[in-house]
Amino acid sequence: MRIGSSIALIAIGAILAFAVADVVDFIDLTLVGWILMGVGALGLIISVVMAGTSRRRVTESRQLHDPHTGETVRRDDTRDNGL
């Protein structure tokens, strides 16, 4: 679940919980609204935490030795791993 879908669930849940006054015999729309808001809030928290931890700095180091010249070449690459 991404941030946008979490916000959509929160909005739909808020509409059902606070703005809909219709009564359906077999379902409580207010309870469904609260459940959707809770799931949306949980999804939003998880999405934000996962987005914050997905960016990691990766450093890769390579060292090569040329047998003909005896020269040693070292290469260091640093990049962000994530979106």
Automatic annotation (TrEMBL):
Region named Disordered: 59-83
The lineage's top-level taxon is Bacteria
User: Membrane spanning segments where?
Assistant: 31-52
Record carries keyword Transmembrane helix: yes
Where's the DUF6458 domain? Answer: 3-69
> Keywords assigned by UniProt?
Membrane, Transmembrane, Transmembrane helix
Q: What is this protein called?
A: DUF6458 domain-containing protein
Q: Which organism is it from?
A: Crystallibacter crystallopoietes
Please name the taxonomic classification of the source: Bacteria, Bacillati, Actinomycetota, Actinomycetes, Micrococcales
